[in-house]
Amino acid sequence: MNNDKLAKLQAQVRIGGKGTPRRKVKKATKSTGGDDRKLQGALQKLGVQPLGGIEEVNFFKDDGKVVHFANPRVQAAINSNTFAIHGRCVEKELTELVPGILSQLGPDSLASLRKLAEAYQSAQGGAAGGEDDDEIPDLVESFDKAEVEDKAEEKAEGEAKA
């Protein structure tokens, strides 16, 4: 390699003065602790108190999805009508949580659940209805009448063979 090219590369890489370590990229450290401290300070001004015994929190969206918090940390200031919920959340479909959340549903959520159920039934009915028509014919006559006719056909075939 050429010494001139090597000297140019070294001049580009050095960040500090002589004797400092050479790095190509200066990485900026991001601290998220400052935001959390600001949030906690604002909540303390409101006088929030921790609420215990809450195992899960669900937020119902208009599009039929649910924001689900399992084992959240909940703080509340009743006088200012402020609630803070901390923890990991997962966005799930309403159908995934239905058995466990029926007691939590309000009138709006029940209406959306009905719409979802109707859409599901129509989708299942349309797909299953087409398949069922191909495999199983509709019942036209009673079973008793068909059985009598089958026995008469078997008797006629037996006489024809003899």
From TrEMBL:
Protein family according to the UniProt entry: Belongs to the NAC-beta family.
Coiled-coil residue spans: none
Region span, Disordered: 10-37
CDD domains listed in its UniProt record: NAC_BTF3
Subcellular location: Cytoplasm; Nucleus
Nucleus listed as a keyword: yes
GO-annotated biological processes: protein transport
Compositional bias of kind Basic residues: 20-29
Matches recorded under PANTHER family: TRANSCRIPTION FACTOR BTF3 FAMILY MEMBER
Annotated keywords: Cytoplasm, Nucleus, Protein transport, Transcription, Transcription regulation, Transport
Gene3D superfamilies, alphabetized: Nascent polypeptide-associated complex domain (2.20.70.30)
The name this protein goes by in its record: Nascent polypeptide-associated complex subunit beta
Record carries keyword Secreted: no
InterPro entries attached to this UniProt entry: BTF3, NAC_A/B_dom_sf, Nas_poly-pep-assoc_cplx_dom
Pfam families assigned: NAC
Residue ranges annotated for the NAC-A/B domain, each copy included: 33-98
GO cellular component: cytoplasm; nucleus
Subunit structure: Part of the nascent polypeptide-associated complex (NAC).
